Amino acid sequence: MKRPLRTTDATTTTEGDAALDATFEALADADCRAILAAAATPKTTSELAEDCDIALSTAYRKVELLSETPLLAEGVRFDPDGDHAAEYVRDAADAAVELGDDGVSLTVDDGGTDPLRAALDAPGVSAD
């Protein structure tokens, strides 16, 4: 399941939310952390695989996992020739874990960034 771009500044996941487990699983994985670092600007899975020096099949699996979390957002790179591609951008600037009476909660904040604006500001990308 792909997660759309976030419409608010923060997302909180709590016990019983599948995104909580997926987020902790992704953060525990070195390849996922490398992808998050590389996804500061929008990139396709192929570009992420190359930047992170991982196999393309591994990158697809890791991007799929990250897409189930509030850490990575999916967009579309439009190509004038009609060969559109999925691209991904880090959708988190800060994360906080809170241990409370109700269990663990994780709040991910995008730091006020707008992934759509970042995508449009990327080199070679135009809204025209």
Write the layout of secondary structure elements.
Elements: E1 10-14, H1 18-27, H2 30-38, H3 45-52, H4 56-67, E2 72-77, E3 85-90, E4 94-100, E5 103-109, H5 115-121
Helix pairs in contact: 2-3, 3-4
Protein name: Helix-turn-helix domain-containing protein
InterPro entries: WH-like_DNA-bd_sf
Organism: Halorubrum xinjiangense
In short:
The chain is α+β, with helices and mostly antiparallel strands. The chain has helices spanning 18-27, 30-38, 45-52, 56-67, 115-121; strands spanning 10-14, 72-77, 85-90, 94-100, 103-109.
How does this structure look, described?
This protein is of the alpha+beta class and 128 residues long. It has one domain: Orthogonal Bundle (Arc Repressor Mutant, subunit A). It is built from five helices and five strands; from the N terminus they run E-H-H-H-H-E-E-E-E-H. It comes from Halorubrum xinjiangense. This is Helix-turn-helix domain-containing protein. InterPro entries: WH-like_DNA-bd_sf (IPR036388).
Q: Mean pLDDT across all residues, rounded?
A: 81
> Could you say what the CATH topology is called?
Arc Repressor Mutant, subunit A
Number of beta strands: 5
Structural class: alpha+beta
> What is the second-level CATH architecture?
Orthogonal Bundle
Strand composition percent? 15-25%
- Low-confidence stretches at least 5 residues in length (pLDDT < 50)? 1-8
The CATH fourth-level homologous superfamily: Winged helix-like DNA-binding domain superfamily/Winged helix DNA-binding domain
With strands numbered from the N-terminus, the spatial order across the biggest sheet is 1-5-4
> Measured on Cα atoms, how large is the radius of gyration?
15 Å
What is the N-to-C order of secondary-structure elements (H for helix, E for strand)?
EHHHHEEEEH
Q: Helical segment tally?
A: 5
Helix content: 25-40%
For the report, how would you describe the main beta sheet?
3 strands, antiparallel
Cα separation of the termini: 29 Å
Organism: Halorubrum xinjiangense
Protein name: Helix-turn-helix domain-containing protein
